[in-house]
Specification:
single chain; about 110 residues; mainly alpha; two-stranded antiparallel sheet; about 5% strand
Length: about 110
Amino acid sequence: MAKFSDTKEKWLKKAEDSIEKNKLRAALMELEEEQKEAFLSLGREVYRAVSEDGIAESAQFVNRINALAQKKESLEKKIALLSGRYICPNCRKEQSAEHLYCSACGTPKITT
C-alpha cells in the first residue's frame, strides 16, 4: 500500500508542477504581449520625438520595457526550474540543471 501512496504522491506533484508551469506560461505570454505594446508605443514616441527634436519623453517607455523584460526573465527562470532546467545568463538558451556549463556557449552555470 505504501508503494501506491508514493506513486500517488509523485503523480500529484507532477500535476501540481504542470499546473504551475501552465500558469507561469500564461503569465509569460501576457507579459510578452504587454511588452510588444510597449515597444510599439516607444516606436511611435521615438518617431514623434525625433521628428520634433524632443527625446526626453521616451524615458518612461524605456523604463516600462526594461521592467517587463525583468518580469519576463523571472517567469522564464521559474518555468525552467520547474522543468529541471535553467536559462544560460549569457546566451539565454535553456539547459539541463545537471550541466555545469552551457552547451550552447560554454558559460559556467551560475548558482544562487
